[in-house]
Amino acid sequence: MSVQAISSRLPGRNAPQAIASRFDIEKLRADFPILHEVVNGRPLVYLDNAATSQKPESVIQAMVHYYRHDNANIHRGVHLLSQRATEEYEAGRGKVQAFLGAREAREIIFVRGATEAINMVAQTYGREHIGAGDEVLITTVEHHSNIVPWQILCQEKGATLCVAPINDRGELEIEEFERLLGPRTKMVSIAHVSNALGTINPVKWIVRLAHAMKVPVLVDGAQAVPHQPVDVRDLDCDFYVFSGHKLYGPTGIGALYGKAALLEEMPPYQGGGDMISSVTFEKTIYNKVPHKFEAGTPHIAGVIGLCAAIEYVSGVGIGAIGAHEHELLEYATEKVGELEGVRLVGTAREKAAVLSFVMDGIHPHDIGTILDQAGIAVRTGHHCAQPVMDRFGIPATVRASFGLYNTREEIDALVAGIQKVWEILG
Ligand code: 7TS
Hints:
By secondary structure, the protein is α/β, with parallel strands linked by helices. The protein has helices spanning 3-7, 16-20, 25-30, 57-70, 80-100, 114-129, 148-157, 174-180, 203-212, 232-235, 260-265, 300-316, 318-337, 364-373, 386-392, 408-425, and strands at 38-39, 42-43, 45-46, 108-111, 135-139, 160-164, 185-191, 217-220, 239-243, 254-258, 276-279, 284-286, 342-345, 354-359, 376-377, 379-381, 397-401.
């Protein structure tokens, strides 16, 4: 089946026109204090949302309120503040469960972010189930954090890391993926959305293919959850990971979803407080899932901030956000794509919120510097996806990535900035 045919089976987006009327961009922008910053004498145009998104006042205030009124360690105190902190923290688990559509709250493990979640799965599930001669299957578009943890594991175990290729648009070559998925494959780990190219992978289809071979699938949702609804039960993936800071929440907090049956039989990742039910020098009995995987004092304020972010995003409507960004992406693709000297990198038919490009004879860092002088924040470099750059034979790109608060006027500013770059350096 072609990627296009698969794409047409992906969950439909809300019609942009229907959304636009509900989407009061100026009201939303007022929720984000940082958007009022002036950068190099110009109003900030923040187009680096794939790296991290800005935080609404409600997220900032939720964390401030926690530290001002409720701060205490969790799960161990009988005193009121500890109970309050514990309740908020565990309520947060329920919120993430609902956000991802997980069956049970204990299927949500709080982690530092997507990176820690993938390392955790590699070092717990992976260590138990992947051995010499086995294969882990990923794709060319992965972020380094979905490559290196598997590489470390494969080196330790004598296993092989296999990589499914992409075509010139940046789409997964499905037939090649199917060919590589073999009897030795013990794990598939794949980005839901590529951070460097914006490609949306047909993850539901991939899960189905992998499960037909009895292979579990981890989906790296770091670039998906801010832009589209995610339902882990519908995807039927075995693990799903994301970072709070790309979802308008704080840094240092994220979540790992794992199917309860898998989490139950996995060994712990780190040892320490809270992950035990009893300890003697001879033997430790581990705590129940999810606490077995949350050693030490967690990022309590982070969980509270993440919950406020989920509430915020849910209030705006993730479908509406995705539709707004899709409109911006289409507009930017057209406007930037027709500029002299510009070549877009990553032109998949299913894309989310990312526009990567290069300019003839001009280094991306120089482009980024000139844009910064105009107050426009974009990312330049390999975006922690060096194999993607290698695939396209380039060292780096300029990446503009969109969030719910971006506007057409900001795309116009980007276009003017790129024209200026061409005038100066072209
Ligand atoms: N996976 C994907 C697809 C990502 O885009 C990122 C971060 C990660 C995993 C790691 O997330 P972390 O929160 O644990 O660091 N991506 C980017 C980026 O594109 N620019 O800066 C960070």
